[in-house]
Write a structure and sequence with these properties.
The protein has about 350 residues and is an alpha+beta fold. It is built from 15 helices and 7 strands. A hairpin with a 4-residue loop joins β2 and β3. The structure holds the ligand [NH3+]CCCOc1cc(-c2cn[nH]c2)ccc1C(=O)Nc1ccccc1. The site of the ligand [NH3+]CCCOc1cc(-c2cn[nH]c2)ccc1C(=O)Nc1ccccc1 has 19 residues, from β1, β2 and β3.
């Protein structure tokens, strides 16, 4: 019985169609009943997860610390004996992957707009000591304002010793994996992310991958060679940037700091990429506190204290979704009980 399976969230969310599924997760569109806002709910079965359960815990912990306008926001986590539900920001435009496929390839200008957003999100992650480690167009979603949101933090790493600490687990998608990562050497997460962004930029500009082969051994050889085709439609500047991103030796690879102000990145825009988060997540919004405290019949102080615990429960979700309503100019109103 579907209701039974999802009863833990059915009280506050109306589940709609499935909008995606990866290995061990199903993602459904849903409506948050108290605010009427649309969300995405990632549903995982703990038994089916098996050895992958730590990946989910990693993702949840990372998403609680990552608040950025180009990173898909986590609103709430519900865990039952059998299931884990992650309530996430909804992106109506689907995957960047499908967008590139339907347009064949993107212009220099459109690639720049998207790539600046990707670099912004990745630079923000690196500044907090996180490496994503699975950057690819399938993990970049387009929201209703044509902005990109990064998802899938199941493989992200925050090495204990900080960003310079070496990682060992080989992971991510082969076609986007850095040479040092597939060579089984220890590697620096942020440097591997830079390589993957090079593969991503190539895919945006060309509509196909720089290194591709059905045979995994041949694919690895191509990646380690670092040789790829340069189609004649590519601009001189973009070719220069690809060359600096797809350096086989990470020592010679461009750093994310240099990337922010690279001439191809700043052409037309005139300004370097802004990577700091536009969300300020320290001060709580007064209007939202008012609506929540009146609705829950508690004092503002009590509500402020409760919200500051960031339990990622129904209250945290209501707070973020009311705030989203406010920033998109809709009334900060709750429609039903929390
Ligand atoms: N390749 C993406 C398929 C859909 O997956 C998602 C969609 C949304 C989404 C859709 N709209 N708004 C947010 C949010 C999160 C995911 C996600 O994390 N998927 C996933 C990642 C790893 C393993 C299995 C599944």
């Amino acid at each position: 019985m579907v209701v039974e399976e999802y009863s833990a969230i059915a009280s506050h969310y109306r589940l709609k169609e499935t909008i995606g599924s990866g290995g061990f997760a199903k993602v459904k569109r849903a409506v948050h009943l108290p605010t009427g806002e649309t969300v995405a709910i990632k549903i995982m079965d703990k038994v089916a997860l098996g050895a992958d359960l730590p990946r989910v815990k990693t993702e949840i912990q990372a998403m609680k610390n990552l608040h950025h306008h180009h990173i898909c926001r986590l609103y709430q986590v519900v865990e039952t004996s059998r299931k884990i539900f992650m309530v996430l920001e909804y992106c109506s435009g689907g995957e960047l992957f499908d967008y590139i496929v339907q347009k064949d390839r993107l212009s220099d200008s459109e690639s720049r707009t998207f790539f600046r957003q990707i670099v912004s999100a990745v630079c923000y992650m690196h500044s907090l000591g996180y490496a994503h480690r699975d950057l690819k167009p399938e993990n970049l979603l387009i929201d209703e304002d044509q902005n990109l949101k990064l998802i899938d933090f199941g493989l992200c790493a925050k090495p204990r010793g900080g960003m310079e600490d070496h990682l060992y687990t080989c992971c991510g998608s082969p076609a986007y994996a850095a040479p040092e990562l597939i060579a089984g050497k220890s590697y620096i997460g942020s440097e591997a992310d830079i390589w993957s962004m090079g593969v991503l930029l190539y895919a945006l500009l060309n509509g196909f991958l720089p290194f591709d082969d059905d045979n995994i051994g041949s694919l690895y050889r191509k990646i380690k060679s670092g040789k790829y085709d340069v189609p004649d439609w590519l601009s001189k500047e973009s070719v220069a940037l690809l060359k600096q991103l797809l350096q086989v030796d990470p020592k010679y690879r461009i750093t994310v700091e240099k990337l922010l102000s690279h001439s191809w990145m700043t052409a037309e825009m005139g300004v370097p990429v802004e990577w700091q988060s536009k969300y300020q997540n320290t001060v709580l919004d007064e209007d939202v506190i008012t609506e929540l405290s009146v609705h829950q019949k508690v004092s503002r102080e009590t509500m402020r204290t409760e919200l500051s615990k960031w339990k990622y429960d129904f209250l945290t979700a209501a707070y973020f979704l009311l705030l989203k309503k406010k920033t998109s100019g809709r009334a900060v109103r709750l429609q039903m009980t929390l």
